[in-house]
Amino acid sequence: MLLGYSWSDWGSILVMQGFAGLSLFSVLLLMALGLAIIFGQMGVINMAHGEFMTIGAYTIYVISKVTEQYFPAFMPYYFVVAIFAAFAIAFIVGYFVEFILIRHLYKRPLDTLLATWGLSLIMQQIFRSTFGGREVSPTLPDWLMGSWSPTPSIDIPINGLFVMAITILVTAAVIISLYKSRWGLKVRATTQNRMMAGAVGINTQKVDRMTFAVGCGVAGVAGAAFTTIASTGPTSGSLYIVDTFLVVVFGGAASLLGTVASAFSISQAQSILTFFMTNAMGKVVTLLTIIVILMLRPEGLFASKVRK
Amino acid sequence: MSTFYERWLGGRQGALGLLVLSLLIFAILPLFLDIFRLNLVGKYLTYAFAAVSLVLLWGHGGILSLGQGVFFGLGGYCMAMFLKLEASDPISTAKQTTPGIPDFMDWNQVTQLPLFWVPFHSLTFAIIAIFVVPAIFAYIIGAAMFKRRVGGVYFAIITQAVAAILTILIVGQQGFTGGINGITDLKTMHGWDINTNSAKYILYYVNGLLLIGVILLSKFVMTSKFGRLLLAMRDKEDRVRFSGYDVANYKIFIFALAAVISAIGGAMFTLQVGFMSPSFVGIVPSIEMVILAAVGGRMSLIGAVYGALLVNYGKTAFSESFPQLWLFLMGGLFIAVVMFFPNGLAGLYQTYVKPHVDGFLDKVGIGGKKKAAVAKVTAPAVAEKEEAAK
């Protein structure tokens, strides 16, 4: 007996709190995967990454409204299509952003930070002008609602399970395409030594543009996952951006495995601490712990052993 | 006298720049603006402290801190705590459940003044705290980061996280800090009403004098041996380290100095505006401070002041009449400065205006032959550095 809860209560609390952490983990990891590609591989500090997530979230919203209005029969299935659309639209926007803005700044990482912050302000204002300042939510298909109760005291929401499934799929896809495909080989070659990659015939400009766009696309998928958990507003993305950067930095910028591990530990820590303290204090303690660990291991948990 | 002229004022151009700026702050603006607008300018000038500190830290030290709002806020809160205690004397708070403590504490069922508030009854302590608290805080962050050779992007992200943490803490601990509303309703400073027009004039002038003083101090730092080391560290940190200098200690010092400069700005902000809130601490205001320095020209102390004045004036003017347009403009400004004017206003001055000014001064015969001996880091030098980087 602890704090007036019985042992079985504690078990349920742990499972549910752990599961809440897993939902947070899914969104954080999807955000961080995109950023791990853009920041970890390319070294570009994309402060507008959160806005690419918001693009994905608004895409889902728009498609859900259109489906509801014109193709009500299609409602149960639209979400799957919409996820691909969220990827595609964020991908296309990212492609053009790289072409217009980012490619001029590869040599100045700190300046990409300022420029993309400016970009994020502009994108937020575009969202606000298009969709209004209020938060919106898509109409979710029925099968996403409700929850699954393995025991009477445990409730696990279906949408959380669904988001986790997406996360696993996307993570696998990113790992395979970065480490097992020809494109991934080109990406790694370009980011490690641009000159040499160019010399062996890789079109580095094209690789950069694709890499950046794919990172943005993954953020769009994160947005799709985000809509099942919370409502979307113009500034939703900026709420996550610092956390996401910390996830990537904490895991070791170039290591995807590190990104997964750090997203997991951060979200679990935050979720479990939130139960014992107030929401704010849970977050403060988590962030402080990350900073202290980063002081001990400045390269992150899983630093790649590369000589600089 | 000549070393003073060359080193502290930065030769003919530097002296001219300071003269124009002083005329603007002390004569032109007070003559043409009513006290409401002048008070606004005073508020902009408090941001200029943060911008100047970023010129030192980022322009010259190559250390991008996205947490200057933290220090601005610490300074501001130290001052606000003193003023708040004075405003909540037992007589004027007699209606509260616990008279003599700030009103927001009473609303939050705090019945005793928290321990860390107690020393702020003394103005001397508050003023010392404005310098010491940010310095200690910066020392802790700086020592932890720079000793472990965390720099560049990582440092920027971590300072950002620190800003987030402090904001969450201030907002969360409502009973101790006033929460999201901050510390409001500040009235007097040692019995001197800070909300009267005459007090506002005096505070504006004090603020201006402090700003000029900070610029002179920063110039002194930049032109000293330490300043040259700072530039060297920014460009080739390893070489400086291999030459036997303890790079970390120099970085910690400049980080703490920049923190104190920002904190002075924060304290003056509280005095002139009459409140302090977490909205000046977080990530967004911190990044806006960086953009002030960037618009002014990241290498130019005086440019930073103009950057602060122009950007904040634009913000006020546009957000009054076209709130949507402002965010577009602000975003566009960030992108434009980074892509097209990496040296900001100061760079534009160097390229387009300075040759004419030089020609004119030569003609009139002021300070003609003696070129400034102090190596000025001008636009081409920065461009070269950026080419060389990576």
Helix-strand layout with pairing:
The complex is a heterodimer of chains A (308) and B (390).
Chain A (H helix, E strand, L loop, with lengths): L6 H35 L7 H22 L7 H23 L8 H23 L15 E2 L7 E2 H22 L2 H11 L1 H6 L4 H26 L6 H16 L4 H21 L2 H18 L12
Helix pairs in contact in A: 1-5, 1-8, 1-9, 1-10, 2-3, 2-4, 2-8, 2-9, 3-8, 5-6, 5-8, 6-8, 9-10, 9-11, 10-11
Chain B lengths: L1 H7 L2 H22 L2 H26 L7 H20 L15 H5 L15 H24 L5 H21 L1 H4 L10 E2 L2 E2 L3 H27 L1 H11 L1 H6 L4 H27 L9 H14 L4 H21 L1 H17 L4 H21 L14 H10 L2
Antiparallel strand pairs in B: 1-2
Helix pairs in contact in B: 3-9, 3-12, 3-13, 3-14, 4-6, 4-12, 6-12, 9-10, 9-12, 13-14, 13-16, 14-15
Task: Describe the model.
Chain A is 72% helix and 1% strand. By secondary structure, chain A is mostly helical. Chain A has a two-stranded antiparallel ribbon. The longest helix of chain A is centred in the first third of the chain and has 35 residues, at 7-41. With 390 residues, chain B is mostly helical. Chain B has 2 domains: 18-342, no CATH class; 350-390, no CATH class. Helix content of chain B is 73%, strand content 1%. Chain B contains 17 helices and 2 strands. The longest helix of chain B has 27 residues, at 197-223. The radius of gyration of chain B is 22 Å and the shape is globular. At the A-B interface, helix 4, helix 9 and helix 11 of A face helix 7, helix 13 and helix 15 of B. Chain B: It holds the Pfam family BPD_transp_2. Chain B: It is a multi-pass membrane protein.
